[in-house]
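Progress against Task 2.4 (sequence-to-structure conversion) is shown through the following example record, which the project officer requested during the mid-term review.
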Amino acid sequence: MRKGVKIIVVGIVGKIASGKSTVCSYIERIRKEVLILDLDKIAKEIYCENEKVVQELKYLFGKEIIGQKNKIKFKILARKVFSNQEELKKLNKTMFPLIREKVRKIIGTSSKKNYVVIDAAILFDCNLHLLCDHIIHVKAERNKRKKFLRNKNKDMSEEDINMRLDGQHLKINNSLVSYVIENNGSKINLYKKVKSVLDKIENSGNAIQDKQ
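Structure tokens generated for the chain above:
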């Protein structure tokens, strides 16, 4: 780590399609040396790298979730876990420790970055909030989230969209949330809100210097 300079670790939490990824992209645009950690991508990397995990998931959820070359069929897996809370708990029990370990390793080797931003709906469920200096909760109305999912996934049925929205049960500790961003307006409005939060973070007194 650069002497006298602390990496600012920011957690971005919120429901599916609330605008977390957009907030991350704006942070990347507004500030320099920003590393975005997308937990969905990290989980998929684990699926690809760890044959043991693939076999365990096959045992837990059935061979129908496995496709060609022993790759996970993510849509089928998502349908299984988002429609059944017990199935989701099984997946989380397998994946959460591996995700935490990988995120810790990445942060530990990111000394040249000013910001590490963890984009994670499951930030609190996975206990990744313990790694964060600041936590931003991104909120959006259901209709806006539903419209986003419909536009992003043209082949997703209305039933699948509602299942994703209704099947997500996040644990968000509001007492540990540093900032709330309401994403119900324009993109320009959202951009301004993100910039304002970043300014507050950097004026909070512990954003640049190492903690004593």
